Amino acid sequence: MEKNGKIFVPPPKDGRDFKELFRQLAAVGAGRPLGRDGFPQGPWTPELLAEAISQIDSNRLGVDLRTVQLWFQENDKGISASNIRWLARIYGCDDPEATSEWLMELSAAQSRLIAKRRDSKKAVRSTVSVVSEAPPSVTADDESQPAGGIAQDSEVSRERQRFSLAERSEALFSRGSSLNLPASIFAGASALGFLSYIVGIASITYRRPDGVVKEVGFLWAPNWTLLFMVLLPLFFVVVIELLAFWKQNARLRLVAQADSSESGKAWASNVCAYSYSYWAVFLICILVAGLLQWIGVCVIPLLEGSGDYAISWGTIAIVQPDLISVPVEIVFTALSYFYMSLCFYLFFAGLILLHTIVHDLWKIEGDVKAQPDVAHWHERAEIRLRILRGIFRCTVLGVLVAVCMKIQSAYLSSNGEDVLTWIIHDMSSVLEGHPDRSQSLGYRMPTHYSSLLVAISACVVFVYGLLRLAFRKEFRVTLWKMSAVVGLLFASYLFIDVFDGFSIFLGISVLLAVYGLFDPEFGQRRQTELESNQSVS
């Protein structure tokens, strides 16, 4: 039957449970729109049904693909009351009366499924009680079997109780709302900014012995404001989105047996395989980049009253003790460096997850046999391209993080009054034909080294993705554009404060990189779609 341009099947009311009823309706394609020729388009698939339910206007939350896949599988899983409502809308073909009939039919079928499941559990329990009352017959095999089972169960329980840094780190990116982690990073940076106002180091200037007046306030440092309030939250948003796409959608579409539980176990095993990497990064970020750097750059110079590092908001108490006391400065810098070390651990954890996604995709592609279906190949290529788009965005944001770190470090040793004035003066000095010949002071700059590690790490993940993922010819132009932008941005990072006019080269590369965040394919997709439309017409 046809109703509102869709395939309508009236409620059978034959006493079947939900699984039996749903299996028949999915095969018939009940509720699917008719094709242009007036014939059915085929049966429901989990992806098509989940998309159709999510497109219902009154359904704001949509439905999870994994939930719909459970309906298609042979199991005891039923359907919730809220999803019965949306499924009735689909089978009712947007007709109020038919939807009401299907709502009653699906509710009754779900009740029958629950009753059948309850009866089967009672039967199993009665069977177990009868077996337990029977006298056991002990054999050599029977004696060894329980012991092995008990040992295996105890081993599994120990594995569950064991703390896994890799799983806990992955959970921060995959569980809960996608805004939890970015919002936490932004909130931490905002709290430090307010605290800097309270202690009086938000915006401060001091005169160097050579007479140069410099702005060294906390809120003027791009590696503490722009980095933690903009770049890192955006980085985490992209990683979280890409991780959700891979776990909940792409991986299930690529694996031969699209079982969400088995796919989840396989992914968890891949995450645990990187356990040593997570621990190594955690120890380096917390102990070396956090604790040791804080002691060497802030605590020792504050206690001794001098140091080989440029004066900044973290050591302003050395030259202006009336502005902030040394104990207060030590406490504030301790909080700042602890926050910084945790953020950078999460940053590197995000890069590890990107590497895990690429490696997992590469292994799955190796296991999948060649398919002659062109659409299948195109779907796989689209998945690979979407993953690389996310990795490109993360790489750009990672190199921009390194740029902020190096710019602040180079500025502190320069003769500029503040960061913006220093960059504008460098740009105008070359454009006006009057290069600035002033030399930077010979301060020690450990941030140059740490920023280089950040930039290289981000680029390594991008290069690994290029090497592991094989693409069709129509995507090669896009990949070359992505690689060129990453290479240009990395080169501009290396040239910071190396020659007069470096800011011009840096500005061009940053503008291209920011555009790439919005359009990673740099117009190539639109051009391909236009060419395909012209060829079809």
* Lateral strand order in the biggest sheet: 1-2
Calculate Rg over CA atoms. Answer: 30 Å
Helicity level: 55-70%
Tally of structural domains: 2
Write down the overall geometry. elongated
Q: Whole-Å distance between the termini?
A: 34 Å
Biggest beta sheet attributes = 2 strands, antiparallel
Which residues sit in consecutive blocks of at least 5 with pLDDT less than 50? 130-160, 369-375, 529-537
Number of helices: 18
Task: Describe the protein.
Helix content is 68%, strand content 2%. It has helices spanning 18-28, 46-54, 65-72, 81-91, 96-133, 140-161, 165-174, 180-199, 226-254, 260-272, 275-304, 326-367, 374-412, 419-431, 446-468, 476-494, 502-518, 524-536; strands at 2-3, 6-7, 205-207, 213-215. It has 18 helices and four strands. Mean pLDDT is 82; it is low at 130-160, 369-375 and 529-537. With 537 residues, it is mostly helical. The chain folds into two domains: 2-115, no CATH class; 168-536, no CATH class. The longest helix has 42 residues, at 326-367. The strands form two sheets. It has a two-stranded antiparallel sheet. A two-stranded antiparallel ribbon has the order 3-4. The chain is elongated and about 95 Å long. Helix 7 crosses helix 12 (326-367), helix 9 packs across helix 10 and helix 9 runs antiparallel to helix 13 (374-412).
Characteristics:
single chain, 537 residues, mainly alpha, 2 domains, two-stranded antiparallel ribbon, 18 helices, 2% strand, disordered C terminus
